Amino acid sequence: MSDMDEYLEMFFVECDELLEAVATGLRQMDEGTYEMETVHAVFRAVHSIKGGAAAFGLTDLVSFAHKFETALDLLRSSALDLSPQAMAVFHRSSDCLADLVAAARISDTRENALREELLIELEALIGEEDETEADVDFVPLSLDLGDFGGSPVGDRYVISLMAEADLYRSGNDPAALIRALEKLGEVRVTLDAGNVPVLSEWSADTPTLRWQIELETEALLSEVEAVFEFVEDRCRLSIATIDQTTEDPDPDLRDSQDPEPQDSDMAEPAITEGTPPAQTSPAPSAAAPRPEGRAEAPGAKAAEATTTATIRVNLDRVDKLMNMIGELVIKEAMLTQVIQTAGLSEEPEVVGALEGLRQLAGDIQESVMAIRAQPLKQVFQRMHRIVREAADATGKQVRLVTVGEQTEVDKTMIERLIDPLTHMIRNSVDHGLEDSVRRHRSGKPQEGAITLSAAHKSGRVQIEVSDDGGGIDRARVRSIAEDKGLVVPGASLTPGEIDSLLFLPGFSSKDEVSALSGRGVGLDVVRREITALGGRVTIASTEGKGTTFTISLPLTLAVLEGMLIQLDDQTLVLPITAVQETLRPDHATLHHIGATGRALLNRGELIPIIDLGCTFGLRPAPGDAHNGVLIVVETDNHKRAAFQVDAIHDQRQVVIKSLEENYGRVSGVSAATILGDGKIALIIDPEEIITSSTSDHGRDRMAIAANG
Amino acid sequence: MLQTISHNAQGKHDVIAFKLTDQDFCIDIGLVREIRGWSPTTVLPHAPHYVRGVINLRGSVVTVVDLSARLGFGASEPTHRHVVIIAMHEGRIVGLLADLVSDIVTISDDSIQAVPDIASDPAHEFITGMITFDDGRILRKIDLMQLLPDAPQYGG
Hints:
The complex is a heterodimer.
Chain A: H1 2-30, H2 36-55, H3 59-76, H4 84-105, H5 113-129, H6 142-147, E1 155-163, H7 165-169, H8 174-182, E2 185-192, E3 210-217, H9 221-227, E4 235-242, H10 251-254, H11 263-267, H12 299-305, H13 315-341, H14 348-372, E5 373-375, H15 377-394, E6 398-403, E7 408-410, H16 411-432, H17 436-441, E8 448-457, E9 460-467, H18 474-483, H19 495-500, H20 523-532, E10 536-542, E11 546-554, E12 559-567, E13 570-575, E14 579-583, E15 590-593, E16 597-602, E17 605-611, H21 612-615, E18 629-634, E19 640-645, E20 647-655, E21 669-674, E22 680-684, H22 686-695, H23 699-707
Parallel strand pairs in A: 6-8, 13-22, 17-19
Antiparallel strand pairs in A: 1-3, 1-4, 2-3, 5-7, 8-9, 9-11, 10-11, 12-13, 12-20, 14-18, 15-16, 16-17, 18-19, 21-22
Helix pairs in contact in A: 1-2, 1-4, 2-3, 3-4, 3-5, 4-5, 13-14, 15-16, 16-20
Chain B: E1 7-9, E2 12-20, E3 23-28, E4 32-37, E5 51-57, E6 60-66, H1 67-70, E7 83-89, E8 92-98, E9 100-108, E10 112-113, E11 127-132, E12 138-142, H2 144-147, H3 151-155
Parallel strand pairs in B: 3-12, 6-8
Antiparallel strand pairs in B: 1-2, 2-3, 2-9, 4-7, 5-6, 7-8, 10-11, 11-12
């Protein structure tokens, strides 16, 4: 059973790739400048999903993919015009197919309303063009299969037949079937008796004979199939059409005995995969063979071959490698220190060798990061669907343009980007773009455009979501924020500050009126998720021209740029992203408030001073701020604080290590890292320190009490 | 009751014996991954008093528990002669700070006696059994499960 699960998992992984191919292909078709090959690619992908699904008995998926495929096939044979309506149905079908795959993955067998609806729409598309199939009912599918795209004369078929016990039991005889084929044309029969066991093991219940029949005939495929009409569920049968002109030299593929129509079969331009064996297909009619492949360009194979060879590697292995390289980097730093203390650091040979080692370690680290990196394409791909759905829900016409989808980021980041981006895209469609009336009035095209772009910028990844809508209505944002008590009425705010109000928790400019709002998620959640990834979100908006959200992310979650600080005898790391400035305080800027409270006057603003030594329980009372260094940090909701530390050592990249794995969460600490001397340093979570220190004044003393 | 035990014979198993002050303790050898010399730890804020801090074990962050403090003997003053016993406990790795490791001893299950009822001592709850030897030596068997409460409890 676990074997089966493994195959099923492989199938789903493959499905993800195929679904992506379907979506990509459909979008190319959208743009109008597509080639027939694109349609073939989409068709093949859908067909592969169907084939795999049939092998695992995923009935819902099979029947839907089949209908989808049928419609696509009509398109291939130019029996169907690619109208915008048809395109819309295809897009939605592609979405639905993804849903069904996802449902199958979690074994969700609930009825999918969209599926039923689309089946009817696809049926309508097929029905429109195909007079022989007037029946809108879904069941008698086999009818529409043989009849259209009829084969030209002089075909060769390769039929592989392996009778099952049932075939004999029901009184059928393979010989009679072969004779019936003889009536259609010239037949060459080869008997494969290789599987026949020795007599002592032979059993009448497990027939082992297999026939390979080459048929040259003028008959249509449907006629050939008709011969097997009564036995197709009692034997393993495959019928492959061989195109005379582009016959494939590989005999293995002609012998399409493989019970699961796989990718490789589909990629073959000249050969058409026949029926998957009836016993694996719960809906034989749905999986019936179909005439196809004739229009398929020989270039199909070549086009697929251009995709670079890839292997699938378990992420754990990459992580392990990453871990070891982290160790290597640390060891290298330790070696440097040892050499320094030994007084050898001036020796040119030592310096040269050490430099070489450092460079190599850096290169290896970079290469492994590159293994973990994946193009943002997967995420961007999904956004097309989000835009479509959001556009449907709001009744707006929206076009999504993606730029730089090959930009690569860390694999874990990709997964965690989906939610925030989805939300931002919905937000752009719902709030960013104006309705068509207002667009018309301001002389913009009916169709709103949302641009999703990604690029590498100074060691970070920058993702932008921009719309060509009306921009942020700052007066309204302000009045809402004032109503909700988020800002003091009459406070002087710069346009940028007003824009940032959108990120405040509790701010929602539309009061759950549209279908998209009312999900209970605001942009504050987006901001929190992006921050959790070590990123930042900013807004830029021009009245009447549109709004741009910019996400800036680190390249990886495994490494962090940090400032090394000293507290007593401990070294800690403060993420550089939070740091605004560092300074040595003087009497003019330092102010006492009450008995223990202290604040720093910085650019006209009073910032509370937090002694990190107290926060972490390293000393009982706050030290003299004059002896230390103050680091001004800012949280995402614009709360600022000055951290008092003893000294700042360095700024460097550190490898993030989990503290929770072997210990547990420590408040004020996000993770740990290993320094050059092999010691562990804790990475400070400034967000948590600021939030907890301002809400809980007794905390410092409590921490010390707990520490004894 | 006993956790992972490496049986080398029926009813017998190996333990690692170590010293804390002047008393002998032991834990199952199956739980022990390695024994290291003491190296300075990085202090964890808000940690219980017996958590010495964390050390770097080939790239993993490992907590070090001061057994002496945990068993109520008072915090130890670690020198380079002290050892850290790296043990695996429910998928997590933990270091146990002890004075020195003395021996690997094969004990038979029937030589384990129940702990005499001396309820007031904090060590009582961490010791699951006593092993007596003919020469009058006594080994106190430590229960890791009791020693290290669950993560949420000893994290804060």
